[in-house]
Design a protein that fits this description.
The complex is a heterodimer. Chain A has 16 helices and 4 strands. By secondary structure, chain A is mainly alpha-helical. Chain A has a domain of about 230 residues. In chain A, strand 2 and strand 3 form a beta hairpin. By secondary structure, chain B is mostly helical. Chain B has 12 helices and 2 strands, in the order ααααββαααααααα. Chain B has a two-stranded antiparallel sheet. Chain B is globular, with a radius of gyration of 19 Å. The chains are: A mainly alpha, B mainly alpha. At the A-B interface, helix 5, helix 6, helix 12 and helix 15 of A face helix 4, helix 10 and helix 12 of B.
Chain lengths: ~375, ~300
């Protein structure tokens, strides 16, 4: 391994250097700064915003999973909501109260239910894979769409597990070694949302680091090869069914974990949550953020999750908008239209998403004054 | 036996509507190689337009005729809307990855549906179908009139499409463009207008389907989900086969009707409303056996 030439950040002398976790110094410094700001968040942000942000972090974990199968391996999945649902119910069933109306095994510890949720979802991902690996492109999109509808039906009807449509059940409690993150205990100086925010941030960092490492490992590079040209990848000795199955399993693992965590914040969920809309939200996160990149996906997840909060503020500036759902036009309509339009606009004008905007800015300043 | 036959006719009725929707998907797919997820929005638009047009057309002599006129007008208007959307949001993307375009249509679908929902209101809007859910007795079977209307519509529309694609010069151009875009262009076919026409046709078909579907319970905000049942139908038939779309649509309708008739007695553990997801289960089973549907062209991979 040779040393890096100072002052030439983009000049790599070995393959290993380019593939390093942080291959340039600005990247290392930038990530450190962002993490520092995020860690300091609880000290200067209000509880409602912290709650929204912790939700956004969990969405980011789920989006990282979709990014792995869609962004990295290029397999279109509209079925992410299905795997999120499986994770959510696995976690809720394991940690649920055994005496309650719905199935529960009373194992409250998070280190049990979180991996279990991921593994069960991953198993379902592997189950789906035999169909998925035989199909390409839009056929796959439709089949995964079918999964969402089948899943929604099962969740609605299996009321001893899910509580039934319109009723729902309580979610898993974020308890780690006897410490409940959602409740502010007497010997802790932090509020519930502050604790949850820290927990979700820590988990997001772990999952993001893992995603980045998978992305630059042999497995992740084989995914990218499959995405770029599956036939060429096969010629280079990549086992196509195996790579696709693995991509689905990893993606579902992330989705399962995200599902398990998603409802610990509100404490309650309903079988109707796992609809096509949730899948579309995840797709919007990945596409708006920048498909195939970890940083971009997280940025996209934050952006999409904060969109409702932002659009609630709109009536203040656009007085013709109403904040009551009974009148037209109201903010809820604007919010939904924004989802749709943002996807369209980003794909039309900046297909690489927020990440692409960042790359363009970076190139502009790097090559200044000769940037054209 | 009569229970079976009645279920069969019910299935063929709704299956005809699915066939109309599936035809729209397939026409767009053949012309542009993209599945347009915007079809549900066009279906909802058509149904809502019809629900507003029928009262406005009260001057026409028969109620049946005013319904027919309204549906036709709604189909034309929805086709025009589809044309505009294709021109604005889809045409700039020609040549990009099909997945990207498919997701764009998904975005369009959400945006259009929100606007249309604003005109529906909270509950269901009556659509002004003159016979509602009235039944007639035919050979000892009681059959809803609307199912007969649906079957009649698919026959008329199917024949019209057949004549258009087989006999008219532009239909020939569309078939040529679907077969090989570049070769068609060198022969003077305007591929752009082929794209536009395919969207307009699909929009119009979806509008007719939406209006027919709303004949029982009116237009509500959940109606759009039914348009997605056409997806199993086109997968069954194969993405690029018009005949397959009709057969797939009818098959999905029949399976749905049979499941809803018999599942309660023979497989109650499947839960209520298992019929609504039966098409998706059927799709998974067919795909395991035939990855390109029953009538689709298998993809040839050349190294």
């Amino acid at each position: 391994m040779s040393t890096k030439v100072t002052g030439r950040p983009a000049f790599f002398q070995s393959y290993g250097q380019e593939l390093a976790l942080f291959n340039t110094r600005p990247k290392k410094v930038g990530v450190a700064l962002v993490v520092l700001v995020a860690v300091l968040g609880p000290f200067f942000l209000q509880d409602p915003l912290l709650r929204t942000l912790s939700l956004a972090f969990v969405f980011a974990i789920g989006a990282l999973g979709l990014n792995m199968v869609t962004g990295l391996a290029g397999q279109v999945s509209l079925g992410h909501a299905f795997f999120v649902g499986i994770g959510a119910y696995t976690a809720a069933a394991i940690s649920g109260d055994p005496d309650a109306r719905t199935i529960g095994f009373g194992v409250q510890e998070m280190w049990v239910w979180l991996p279990a949720a991921g593994i069960v979802a991953a198993l379902f991902g592997v189950l789906v894979a035999p169909i998925a690996t035989r199909l390409r492109g839009l056929y796959l999109a439709i089949v995964t769409l079918g999964l969402v509808f089948l899943g929604e039906h099962v969740f609605r009807e299996w009321s001893s597990l899910t509580g039934g449509a319109g009723v729902g059940r309580s979610a898993a409690d974020p308890v780690l070694f006897g410490f409940d993150f959602s409740q502010s205990s007497s010997d802790s100086s932090f509020t519930g949302p502050q604790q949850l925010y820290s927990l979700m941030l820590a988990l997001l960092l772990v999952f993001a680091l893992a995603a980045r490492n998978i992305g630059r490992s042999k497995v992740g590079r084989s995914f990218a090869a499959v995405r770029d040209r599956d036939m060429a990848a096969e010629m280079m000795g990549i086992d196509l069914p195996r790579a696709k199955t693995l991509a689905f399993a990893l993606s579902s693992f992330y989705a399962g974990c995200a599902g398990a965590l998603l409802y610990t914040i509100s404490g309650f969920f309903d079988p109707g949550s796992f609809s096509l809309l949730l899948s579309v939200q995840f797709i919007a996160m990945v596409l708006i953020g920048g498909a195939g990149t970890v940083g971009g996906t997280i940025a996209g997840a934050l952006f999409v999750s904060l969109l409702p909060t932002l659009s609630r503020e709109l009536p203040r500036f656009l007085t013709f908008l109403s904040s009551s759902p009974a009148e037209t036009p109201n903010v809820f309509q604007v919010e939904q239209i924004l989802y749709g339009l943002l996807i369209v606009v980003f794909l039309l004008f900046e297909p690489r998403g927020l990440y692409g905007i960042w790359v363009r800015l970076r190139t502009y300043w790097k090559s200044w004054p000769f940037s054209y | 036996m009569s229970q079976f036959l009645e279920a069969l006719i019910r299935g063929l009725g709704t299956g005809s509507v699915y066939a109309l929707l599936a035809l729209g998907f397939v026409i767009i797919y053949k012309a542009t190689r993209v599945i347009s997820f915007a079809q549900p929005a066009f279906m909802l638009t058509g149904a809502v337009l019809t629900s507003y047009l029928v009262p406005a057309m009260g001057f026409v002599l028969f109620t049946g005729l005013s319904f027919l006129l309204s549906v036709t007008t709604a189909a034309l208007l929805t086709g025009a809307l589809a044309l505009v959307i294709e021109r604005v949001a889809v045409r700039p993307m020609v040549g990009k990855a099909v997945f990207t375009i498919a997701i764009i249509t998904l975005g369009i679908d959400i945006a259009v549906r929100v606007v249309v929902n604003g005109y529906i209101g909270i509950g269901a809007r009556p659509i002004g179908f003159p016979w509602g859910i009235d039944t007639i007795e035919l050979l000892g079977l009681s059959i809803q009139i609307r199912h007969l209307v649906m079957m009649g519509t698919v026959v008329v529309v199917g024949l019209a499409l057949y004549a258009f694609f087989q006999k008219s010069p532009f239909g020939l151009a569309m078939r040529a463009a679907a077969f090989d875009q570049e070769a068609a262009m060198t022969q003077g076919v305007s591929v752009g207008s082929v794209f536009a026409t395919s969207w307009a046709l699909a929009g119009a078909l979806a509008a007719i389907a939406g209006s027919l579907l709303a004949t029982s319970a009116g237009v509500d905000r959940q109606l759009w989900v039914i348009a997605l049942v056409a997806l199993p139908a086109i997968i069954l038939g194969g993405l690029d086969s018009l005949e397959g779309a009709v057969i797939g649509g009818l098959a999905v309708g029949v399976v749905e009707a049979l499941v809803s008739t018999y599942q309660r007695d023979y497989a109650p553990w499947l839960g209520d409303n298992a019929a609504t997801v039966a098409p998706y289960a059927l799709m998974l089973v067919v795909l395991l056996a035939r990855p390109y549907g029953l009538f689709g062209t298998p993809e040839v991979r050349r190294v």
